[in-house]
Amino acid sequence: MVHELYAYLRVDDSARAIDFYRQAFGATEIFRLTEPSGRIGHAELDFNGTTLMISDAFPEFGMTGPQPGNGSPVSLHLHVDDADRLVQQALDAGAMLEMAPQDQFYGERTGVVIDPFGHRWMIGHEIEKLTPQEMQRRYTDMMQSS
After folding, report:
1. pTM for the whole thing?
2. Burial code of 4-17, b = ≥16 C-beta within 10 A, e = fewer?
3. Which of 48, 114, 121, 144 makes the best surface tag, with the fewest CB within 10 Å?
4. pLDDT, tens digit (0-9, with 9 covering 90-100), for 24-78
C-alpha cells in the first residue's frame, strides 16, 4: 500500500540547487546527509508541507540528473497562490523562462521555468473550478482548432 509519493531530484551541485530552491520557491531545508568529500548523498526540502528529496548525481551508480539545455522528461508542478509572482521570483533567482504565465483551458494560470539544473517547473494557480468533463470539452475544442 502506497502512503506517500516524493519527487527525488538528482543534480550536479545539490548544495547550489538547495540555495536556488530557497530563493526561487521559498523552500526550507529539513536536513542533509553529506559525505566527507562534501557531496550531498540525500537532502530533504519542505515546500510548504510537501517534501522534495534531492541529492548530488552519482554517475558511478547510474544516478544522474538532466543536463541543462537537453530537456527533461519530467515536469514538477507547483500549485501556488500567485503564479505570476512566483515565476518572476524563480527568474530573479536564475531560472530560464520557457512559457510566461497565461490562462489555460484547464482553469489554471500557468507559467513554466527551467531551473539552472535542468528541471522543468510548471507554476500555476487556479482561476476557475472545472469538472473533468468541461476540461475535456475545452481540450477537444482546442485540439480540433489547431
Report:
1. 0.91
2. eeeeebbbbbbbeb
3. 144
4. 999 999 999 999 999 999 999 999 999 999 999 999 999 998 877 788 888 999 9
